[in-house]
Design brief:
The complex is a heterodimer of chains A (about 525) and B (about 190). Chain A has about 525 residues and is α/β, with parallel strands linked by helices. Chain A has two domains: about 300 residues, 3-Layer(aba) Sandwich (Rossmann fold); about 110 residues, Orthogonal Bundle (Fumarate Reductase Iron-sulfur Protein, Chain B, domain 2), CATH 1.10.1060. Chain A has 14 helices and 17 strands. In chain A, strand 13 and strand 14 form a beta hairpin. In chain A, helix 4 crosses helix 5 and helix 10 crosses helix 13. The radius of gyration of chain A is 36 Å and the shape is elongated. With about 190 residues, chain B is mostly helical. Among the domains of chain B are: about 55 residues, Orthogonal Bundle (3-methyladenine DNA Glycosylase II, Chain A, domain 3), CATH 1.10.15.40; about 60 residues, Alpha-Beta Plaits. In chain B, about 35% of the residues lie in helices and about 5% in strands. The longest helix of chain B is centred in the N-terminal third of the chain and has 24 residues. The relative contact order of chain B is 0.10. The chains are: A alpha/beta (about 525), B mainly alpha (about 190). Chains A and B meet through helix 13 of A and helix 6 of B.
C-alpha cells in the first residue's frame, strides 16, 4: 500500500527559530588534509565498544579493519588512511563528559594506500538482503545524522515486521547545520542509488524523502535525481520548516501519518528511517566496496572566519578542521559539537572528529549566551504546548528535581528526545533538558545497580550452596571412614587365627605357671 | 431464633472449611516478605549489619529481630525503602557508609600476593580467582566492594580503589547550583 498524500500530516508542538543556515549553506571548503596522527576512538557509535585487532607498530592499509565489533549492536572501525599504529591509548573523545576513552593512534605515512577490499556488489538486486546487511555491517556504517546507531542493526527488522515505507531524512531541522543540505545538492545521485539499495534490503514498497522547505536547491536536486533514476515508488516531499521536523518520529508522523508507539521503534509500524548521508554511505559500501572513513562536517558560527562544510576523515583533530575554515574569530566564545539545540559544549578543542560529529558550532556570546538564572516554574504550560513527544515536561521537571525516578519513568521520561523545545520556550529559563538528561542517566545507573545486585545475590547463593555441599561431602566421608573402622573392630572378634594364637598363649602361660609351681614344690 | 443460630453456624462451618482448604491448597512457599526485603538490600554480602549476608539480615528484619538501619552500603535510600515497605518509622543509619555515589572495589597488588587463598575464602561472591601459591586477582565486574577480603590478607596487598568513571557509567550532573539558591528562596518565602 502506497502512502497517499504524504506530508500532509503534522506533529505536535515544535518551535520556529532563525535557522542561521545561510552562514554555511552550499559552501564546500574541500577535504581536510590528512593529519600526521589520526586518533580513532573505539567507541564512535551506540552499542558495545569495538575491540582493537591491531597492535602498536603494525602497518595498516587504508580501509583495513583495525577494531572489530564483538557484539550485535556495534560497528567495526577502519583505518582512514595507511600508516603505522602508534598504540592504543586513552585520549579525550567527543562526549559531554569531557572524559578520555581508549583510542587507536595511527601515524599516517602519506601514501594513502588502499588495503584489500571485498568484491563490489553492483548487481545487488540479485543478492539476498542478508548479504547486503553483512556488507553494510562490514563497512562500519552508523546513523550519520548524529545518533550513530549501527545501520545494519536497524535494517535487521526481522520477518515479523515487514517494512512498507522507507523514510529518508533530509529535513536537517537543527539551526546552523548544512552538511546534509550540501550532500543533497551535490551528490543527489549517490543518495538515490543508496535508496534503491535500501529499498531492496528492507524489502520496502515505497520511499519518501522528507526535506524542509528552507532548502529549495536540495529539493530540486533530489527531485531531478529521482526523475532521472526512473524509480516510480520514490517521492521527494517538501515539509514545513519547524524544529524538530528531522526527529525520526516527527518526520515519520508528518510523511506517513503513522505514530511510532511509546518505547517502540519505527519498524513496528512498518517504517525505517535513514539519514541522507547514511544512505550515501550505503552506496559506497555496496557499489564501490568502500568502508565508512570520512564524513561531511559543518563548521559554522560567528566564531569561525569562513564557515562552510568540510570532508573530514575520522580521527582528524578538531584544530585542523577549524584551521581549514579560516580559524577562530575574535567573537569565538563557546565551542559546541552538534547544533545549538541538541549539541553539547566542549571544554576545549583537543578532540578528534568521529562518525557522529555532524557540526562544529563556534558560537559568539550573542549566539550562545550564558544561561539566564533559573526562576521558579510558574506552571504556564508552554513546555507542554511545544513538546513534540507530547509529554508533560513540567511534571517530569518536578519529578526529576525531586529525584523521584519511578515517577519520571511513569511519565514516560524515555520518550523524551531531548530536542530542547521546552527549555527554549521556558519563560523561567529552567534548564529542563538538563534535568531530563540527569534523570535518564540516574535511571540507567539504578537499573545497572539492580542487575549487579541480582548477580551478586545469585553468586552468593551459589557459593553458600557449594560450601554446604562440600561440608556435607566431608561429613559423609568422615562417617564412611568411621563406619568402616567400626566394622573392622566388629569383625575382628571372631577371627579364628587370633583366637588360636590367644589360646596357645594361654596354654603356654598356664604351662609356665604350672612348671613354676612344680619347681617350688620340689 | 433457632433458625438464625443454625444459619450462622452453617455459614461459619462452611467458611471455616473453605479457608482451611485454601490454606493448604494455596500455601505460599517460603516467606514473600523476606524476598521483598532481600530485593531492597544491596547484595554486597558484606556482613556490616552483623548477619552473615543480605538474606540472613532480611530474614532477621522480617522476623522483627533486627532494625532497618544496619546496612551502610544501602545508605539512607535503602533504609527509607525498607521503612516504606514495612510501614516503619525511618531511623538514622547506625554507621555511615562511604560518601554517597562513590563505589569502591578491591584490587590486589599482584606483585606482592603470596598466594595464601585467604581472600578467596573470605569473598562472599566468589569474585577472586587464584590457587595456592599462585597469584590471585579480583574479577572487577563481580566485586561488590564489601571489603571482607581486606583483613584476612597477611601481606596487606589488597586496596579498595574507587571505580573509574568511563563513558558507559558517566552520569549527567544535577543541574547547577542556581536551583539550590532557588530552593532556599522558596523556603524563605
Amino acid at each position: 500500500m502506497i502512502t497517499s498524500n504524504p506530508g500532509h500530516w503534522d506533529f505536535h508542538g515544535g518551535i520556529h527559530r532563525p535557522d542561521k543556515k545561510s552562514l554555511s549553506a552550499g559552501k564546500f571548503l574541500g577535504k581536510v588534509p590528512l593529519p600526521e596522527i589520526l586518533t580513532l576512538p573505539l567507541q564512535q557509535h551506540i552499542g558495545s565498544m569495538a575491540e582493537p585487532v591491531v597492535t602498536a607498530g603494525e602497518h595498516v592499509y587504508k580501509g583495513q579493519i583495525i577494531a572489530r565489533s564483538t557484539e550485535y549492536i556495534g560497528a567495526p572501525i577502519h583505518a582512514p588512511s595507511s600508516g603505522i599504529v602508534l598504540g592504543i591509548e586513552e585520549h579525550p573523545v567527543p562526549h559531554p563528559s569531557g572524559l578520555s576513552a581508549p583510542c587507536i593512534l595511527l601515524q599516517t605515512d602519506g601514501k594513502d594506500e588502499w588495503g584489500e577490499l571485498p568484491e563490489p556488489l553492483p548487481h545487488y538486486a540479485d543478492l539476498d538482503p542478508s548479504v547486503l546487511r553483512e556488507r553494510i555491517r562490514w563497512a562500519g556504517i552508523v546513523g550519520l545524522g548524529g545518533a550513530a546507531f549501527p545501520t545494519s542493526v536497524k535494517l535487521n527488522h526481522g520477518p515479523d515486521r515487514p517494512i512498507q515505507t522507507l523514510v529518508i531524512n533530509g529535513a536537517e531541522c537543527e539551526p546552523y547545520i548544512t552538511c546534509d543540505d550540501l550532500l543533497m545538492r551535490e551528490q543527489a545521485d549517490r543518495i538515490v542509488e543508496g535508496i534503491e539499495i535500501l529499498l531492496h534490503v528492507a524489502e520496502a514498497q515505497e520511499c519518501l524523502i522528507g526535506i524542509e522547505d528552507n532548502k529549495p536547491e536540495a529539493i530540486a536536486a533530489m527531485r531531478r535525481a529521482v526523475t532521472e533514476s526512473g524509480l516510480q515508488n520514490v517521492q521527494v516531499v517538501q515539509v514545513a520548516t519547524r524544529y524538530p521536523m528531522g526527529g525520526e518520529k516527527q518526520l515519520i508522523k508528518v510523511l506517513t501519518g503513522k505514530e511510532v508507539p511509546s518505547h517502540g521503534i519505527p519498524a513496528e509500524i512498518g517504517v525505517i528511517c535513514m539519514n541522507v548521508a547514511t544512505t550515501a554511505a550505503v552506496t559506497d559500501a555496496v557499489i564501490a566496496a568502500r568502508p565508512l572513513l570520512s564524513r561531511l562536517v559543518t563548521v559554522t558560527g560567528a566564531g569561525i572566519t569562513s564557515p562552510g562544510n568540510l570532508e573530514v576523515a575520522f580521527g582528524t583533530p578538531l584544530p585542523q578542521v577549524i584551521q581549514l575554515a579560516g580559524g577562530y574569530t575574535d567573537q569565538a566564545y563557546k565551542l559546541i559539537l552538534g547544533g545549538p539545540m541538541m549539541g553539547f559544549t566542549l571544554g576545549n578543542d583537543s578532540i578528534p572528529l568521529t562518525k557522529g560529529s555532524n557540526c562544529i558550532l563556534v558560537a559568539s556570546q550573542e549566539e550562545a549566551p550564558a544561561p539566564d538564572r533559573a526562576l521558579p516554574c510558574i506552571r504556564c504550560g508552554k513546555c507542554v504546548e511545544v513538546c513534540p513527544a507530547q509529554l508533560l515536561p513540567q511534571q517530569l521537571y518536578w519529578y526529576a528535581r525531586a529525584k523521584d525516578l519511578d515517577k519520571t519513568r511513569e511519565y514516560n521520561l524515555f520518550d523524551c528526545i531531548e530536542c530542547g523545545c521546552c527549555s527554549w520556550v521556558c519563560p523561567s529559563h529552567i534548564p529542563l533538558v538538563q534535568y531530563y538528561r540527569f534523570a535518564k542517566t540516574e535511571n540507567w545507573a539504578m537499573e545497572k545497580e539492580k542487575q549487579q545486585a541480582e548477580k551478586a545475590r545469585r553468586r552468593h547463593e551459589a557459593r553458600t550452596q557449594r560450601l554446604e555441599r562440600l561440608e556435607r561431602e566431608r561429613k559423609a566421608r568422615l562417617r564412611q571412614k568411621k563406619e568402616a573402622l567400626e566394622k573392622k573392630t566388629a569383625t575382628n572378634a571372631p577371627d579364628p587365627k587370633k583366637s588360636a594364637i590367644e589360646a596357645a598363649m594361654k596354654r603356654v602361660a598356664e604351662k609356665k605357671a604350672r612348671q613354676s609351681r612344680e619347681n617350688e614344690e620340689h | 431464633m433457632l433458625t438464625a443460630i443454625l444459619a450462622i453456624t452453617a455459614l461459619s462451618v462452611s467458611f471455616g472449611l473453605l479457608l482451611g482448604y485454601s490454606a493448604i491448597r494455596f500455601k505460599v512457599e517460603g516467606d514473600p516478605l523476606v524476598d521483598r526485603i532481600d530485593a531492597i538490600l544491596p547484595q554486597t554480602q558484606c556482613g556490616q549489619c552483623g548477619f552473615a549476608g543480605c538474606r540472613p539480615y532480611a530474614e532477621a528484619i522480617a522476623a522483627g529481630k533486627a532494625e532497618i538501619n544496619l546496612c551502610p552500603p544501602g545508605g539512607e535510600a535503602g533504609m527509607l525503602a525498607l521503612a516504606d515497605l514495612l510501614g516503619k518509622e525511618p531511623v538514622p543509619l547506625e554507621n555511615e557508609g562511604p560518601a554517597k555515589g562513590e563505589k569502591f572495589i578491591a584490587h590486589i597488588r599482584e606483585d606482592e600476593c603470596i598466594g595464601c587463598t585467604l581472600c578467596i575464602q573470605a569473598c562472599p561472591v566468589d569474585a577472586i580467582v587464584g590457587a595456592a601459591k599462585q597469584m590471585h586477582t579480583v574479577i572487577a565486574e563481580q566485586c561488590t566492594g564489601c571489603e571482607l577480603c581486606v583483613p584476612p590478607c597477611p601481606v596487606e596487598c589488597i586496596d579498595m580503589v574507587p571505580v573509574k568513571t568511563t563513558l558507559s557509567n558517566w552520569k549527567w550532573p544535577f543541574p547547577n547550583s542556581d536551583d539550590q539558591e532557588l530552593e532556599a528562596q522558596e523556603q524563605q518565602s
